[in-house]
C-alpha cells in the first residue's frame, strides 16, 4: 500500500514538473523577437530585434513555481490530508516567510515594478545616488535586470556593480539614455 502512494506521488511530481517546465519554456521563448521584412524582389529578410526578455523570463519563472506549488497542494490533498490543515500550515509558513524576508520581498516587488514600468532597460546608461551610503554615486551601463537586483558595468573600469532593487525606491536615479522632448 505504501509503494502505491510513493509511485503515485512520484508520477504526480513528474507531471507537474513537466507541465511547469513546458509553460516556462513557452513563455520565455515567446519573448524572442524576429521580424520579417519583404524586399522589393519579394525575398524575405529576417531581422533579429533587440527585445527586453526580462518580463518573459520573470513571468516564466513565476508561473513555474506557482504550478509546482499548486501541484504540491494537490499531492497533499490526494493523500488524504484535510484542506483546513493544509491552509493552516500554508498560512503559518506564509506569515513566517513574509516577516523574515521583508528586504527580499521589497527587492522582488520593486523588481516587478522596474520590469513593467520600464524606467530603465538593459543597455541604458544610468547613475544612482545612494542616500544612506555617504551619498555614493554609481554610474554605468545596465547589463541585467532581475527580480532581486540590477547589474551595471561602470564606465571607467568595467566593474560590475550589483544594486538591490529596493535601492531604486530610495535612491535618486538618472537615466542618460532617455531623451525627453517637450
H/E element string? Answer: HEEHHHEEEEHE
What is the CA-atom radius of gyration, in angstroms?
Answer: 22 Å
Distance between the termini: 74 Å
In what range is the share of β-strand residues? 15-25%
Query: What is the total tally of β strands?
Result: 7
Count structural domains. 2
Widest sheet, order of strands: 6-5-4-3-7
Number of separate helices: 5
Mean pLDDT, rounded to whole units? Answer: 77
Unreliable stretches: 34-38, 46-51
What class would the helix/strand composition place it in? alpha+beta
For the sheet with most strands, the description reads: 5 strands, antiparallel
Sum this structure up briefly.
The chain is of the alpha+beta class. It has helices spanning 2-30, 54-78, 83-100, 102-117, 167-170, and strands at residues 34-38, 44-48, 125-130, 136-145, 149-154, 160-164, 172-175. It has 5 helices and 7 strands, in the order H-E-E-H-H-H-E-E-E-E-H-E.
What does this structure look like?
- By secondary structure, the chain is an alpha+beta fold.
- It has two domains: 2-100, no CATH class; 120-175, SH3 type barrels, CATH 2.30.30.60.
- The chain is 51% helix and 23% strand.
- The chain is built from five helices and seven strands; from the N terminus they run αββαααββββαβ.
- The strands form two sheets. A five-stranded antiparallel beta sheet has the order 6-5-4-3-7.
- The chain is elongated.
- It starts with a helix and ends in a 7-residue tail after the last strand.
- Residues 34-38 and 46-51 have low confidence and may be disordered.
Amino acid at each position: 500500500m505504501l509503494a502505491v502512494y510513493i509511485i503515485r506521488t512520484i508520477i504526480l511530481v513528474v507531471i507537474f514538473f513537466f507541465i511547469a517546465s513546458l509553460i516556462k519554456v513557452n513563455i520565455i521563448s515567446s519573448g524572442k523577437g524576429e521580424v520579417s521584412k519583404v524586399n522589393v524582389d519579394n525575398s524575405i529578410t529576417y531581422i533579429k530585434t533587440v527585445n527586453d526578455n526580462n518580463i518573459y523570463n520573470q513571468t516564466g519563472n513565476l508561473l513555474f513555481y506557482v504550478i509546482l506549488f499548486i501541484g504540491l497542494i494537490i499531492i497533499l490533498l490526494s493523500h488524504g490530508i484535510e484542506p483546513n490543515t493544509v491552509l493552516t500550515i500554508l498560512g503559518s509558513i506564509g506569515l513566517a516567510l513574509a516577516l523574515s524576508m521583508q528586504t527580499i520581498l521589497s527587492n522582488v516587488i520593486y523588481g516587478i515594478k522596474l520590469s513593467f514600468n520600464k524606467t530603465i532597460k538593459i543597455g541604458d546608461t544610468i547613475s544612482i545616488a545612494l542616500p544612506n551610503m555617504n551619498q555614493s554615486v554609481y554610474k554605468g551601463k545596465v547589463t541585467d535586470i532581475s527580480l532581486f537586483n540590477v547589474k551595471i558595468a561602470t564606465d571607467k573600469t568595467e566593474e560590475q556593480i550589483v544594486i538591490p532593487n529596493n535601492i531604486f525606491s530610495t535612491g535618486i536615479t538618472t537615466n542618460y539614455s532617455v531623451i525627453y522632448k517637450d
